[in-house]
Amino acid sequence: MNIVEKTHGTHGNERINAFSDGVFAIVITLLVLELKVPEHLPEGGLLALLPSLLPSLLGHVISFVLVGMFWVGHHNMFLGIKRHDRALLWLNNFFLLAIATMPFFAGLLAHHTTDQASMIAYALNLIVAGVFLWMTWRHATQKRRLVSAEMPAAVVSHVERRILMAPVLCIFAIISTFINPSISQFIFVLIALLYIFPNPLDLLHHHKMKSSQSPTSAPQQ
Amino acid sequence: MNIVEKTHGTHGNERINAFSDGVFAIVITLLVLELKVPEHLPEGGLLALLPSLLPSLLGHVISFVLVGMFWVGHHNMFLGIKRHDRALLWLNNFFLLAIATMPFFAGLLAHHTTDQASMIAYALNLIVAGVFLWMTWRHATQKRRLVSAEMPAAVVSHVERRILMAPVLCIFAIISTFINPSISQFIFVLIALLYIFPNPLDLLHHHKMKSSQSPTSAPQQ
Amino acid sequence: MNIVEKTHGTHGNERINAFSDGVFAIVITLLVLELKVPEHLPEGGLLALLPSLLPSLLGHVISFVLVGMFWVGHHNMFLGIKRHDRALLWLNNFFLLAIATMPFFAGLLAHHTTDQASMIAYALNLIVAGVFLWMTWRHATQKRRLVSAEMPAAVVSHVERRILMAPVLCIFAIISTFINPSISQFIFVLIALLYIFPNPLDLLHHHKMKSSQSPTSAPQQ
Amino acid sequence: MNIVEKTHGTHGNERINAFSDGVFAIVITLLVLELKVPEHLPEGGLLALLPSLLPSLLGHVISFVLVGMFWVGHHNMFLGIKRHDRALLWLNNFFLLAIATMPFFAGLLAHHTTDQASMIAYALNLIVAGVFLWMTWRHATQKRRLVSAEMPAAVVSHVERRILMAPVLCIFAIISTFINPSISQFIFVLIALLYIFPNPLDLLHHHKMKSSQSPTSAPQQ
């Protein structure tokens, strides 16, 4: 059906964004469904259940942050992508497939925190999501140039490095499951923190970029 | 990925709104899932079940109104916010995390209406949501000025007070659980009513603002 | 927070629409969750189950059409509404509350097709949704004039009659439960058909309106 | 309510798209709910469960791709549709009804992979979705011309052929269930692949169209 696209010329990515936002919103809310309301409270009420509820709540927060991280990445990436083609639609769909399976693997890990295969499956899911996000960016910037023509090569490769940071760390998380599962859990928390807070490497690069470019009128963000 | 933002200059908050609206829509509908269709009706049909169904339906309506209150607050606040940065995205994400956990805590309270810890947990959830909404507004107006430059300081602080009204009342609701749980329930209903109907304090302030400003061409809302 | 609205002047209804579309989309899909995948198939496979699955599928289709009817009504109504205020936001929220409870009452009716109270509850839910839709339209057109100033009074009252058609028929459906439940079921199907196909009364009115107005350049829809 | 549409002249399809994107996003995520987190792991952990989990995951991926295929088709089609009327809204609603029932039939097939009726039901669901998509396109292009006046007849019929490809293949899948169920499964995979990758027939036609048209300034997609 790409002839229609051809005939009608340029068009934005509004629906890709709307569809993706929908999937992200549902996934992030489905993670809550993993939290089961206890049918019967023990003597002492909810307070007595807290020790067993807290790890579940914490895992929920970490999974939420990881999905949020992908949303922020997708959001920022599509600020730069101006056009689309069939291949971009499908790369995005497969990225969303990986996002949509996150509640399943998060649930698996929440129920079986000590199972090595569950931890590896969780990491693999994050890797698949990261790789499809990276392929989307490569497709947009390299083969087809679906981004603005003025985007500097330094930005293209900087975004690439930033996207690949999570999958690379997940490989370390997988290796760590053979040594000490606690290290893997620490890496998942580390990934979340690295993407929420601007990391030193990022700031350094940012600084270098700024000094090599002429000042822009863009608002100081 | 904030270099992309930098390169491409200003851009709207469409996707923040779309993502947030998605989460709100799902949360508000998930509250319905708490209503369980009874598998078998007693003799006398549904009518005989009504006394036990009604409190559940009422709790559902109150939770719905509280989520709706946050949506209206978020909607109105983002009418004033014109730009975003990474920090605003994450403050908004954490606000949405608090919203997404509301069906869980609402379900907890619906099942265990007399349990003090459940009531405190429900109030704490509302407080966390309110505090993140307030932090989003502070970040937008103070540190970074992501709002229109012409927004008067009186509006900034008025919105702040209005947002903080709910968390402050929730603190009273928590204290009340130690005295009389009925007072806490009354406070939740009061919060809902305060935000649906323009309250006297609000109207008084509104009136003062109007007389100190020159008349605008904005439609009389 | 209506001072913010005041300060920033006119703004569209994009987020009301986005939020409402989200609720509608979820509700319409939740109706599917009422369809339970049978764990074990009898001898003869799915084919042998068909007689018991078909009524469930049919009820699903009718509920889907009724939700679709409200979406079309909401969609068409908001083509005419140009502005909003706090009251409109809340009238819309309560309309959405009624929409969000439809899967619950549809599930109730699907499980207990012969129970009179379930049928009345289903009709009452439709009435509440219709009445809030009607109140939204009245608020927009009468008290506050949130619609275009040029909208003729004939259009305002025509839309009003069209919205009220469903609640009025639902009252007849409730009365019919005391006489013959089959009549009630017939009325629900009738409502669905009346809103899908342009009804004679509508066309007659349409014709009268056209002859009393000067021809417009609007596309022939 | 089409008088409102008349009075207010032309308007876009934003809400049809938003509503449809919402349904698609939820359906694609609900498919995940079919994946059940195993309560208890056997000795050997998740790894020992893998042989029984893999077919379920694969079926999940195929259903995801088929829903994604319909989204891409709907997305591309509505790039060409510029206006709407009541009939288009309802044709789209019924298309969405077929999309919304896909998790149910996918779940049925996933649980009863060897049941012929389940396979036929799955294929029939795809046929109904395809036929409503096709009716939407016919309605838009033929009876009412809701598309741009300049759209060449060749594009109209090309899109039509592309849409009908899936239902026609599904008929073959149904016939195959009487011969060998494996052929049917192969056809479902084939449909998915045909729509992801530009097929030879499509490229041939694409080439013919290009040579008969004057070059456009549209970006090379």
Describe this structure in words.
4 copies of one chain form a homotetramer. The first copy, chain A, is mostly helical. Chain A has one domain (12-34, 55-199). Chain A contains 9 helices and no strands. The radius of gyration of chain A is 20 Å and the shape is elongated. Chains A and B meet through α2, α3, α7 and α9 of A and α1, α2, α4, α5 and α6 of B.
- What coarse outline of chain A follows from CA principal-axis ratios? elongated
N/C terminus separation of chain A: 40 Å
Query: How much helical structure, as a percent, in the residues of chain A?
Result: over 70%
User: Which spans of chain A of ≥5 residues are poorly predicted at pLDDT below 50?
Assistant: 1-10, 213-221
The chain pair with the largest interface is: A-B, 53 and 45 residues
What distinguishing features does this structure have?
homotetramer; 221 residues; mainly alpha; 9 helices; 76% helix; elongated; disordered C terminus
List the helices and strands and how they pair.
Four copies of one chain form a homotetramer.
Chain A: H1 2-7, H2 14-33, H3 46-80, H4 86-100, H5 102-111, H6 116-143, H7 153-177, H8 181-196, H9 200-212
Helix pairs in contact in A: 2-3, 2-4, 2-5, 3-5, 3-6, 3-8, 4-6, 5-6, 6-7, 7-8
What would a concise description of this structure say?
Helices cover 76% and strands 0% of the residues of chain A. Chain A is mainly α and 221 residues long.
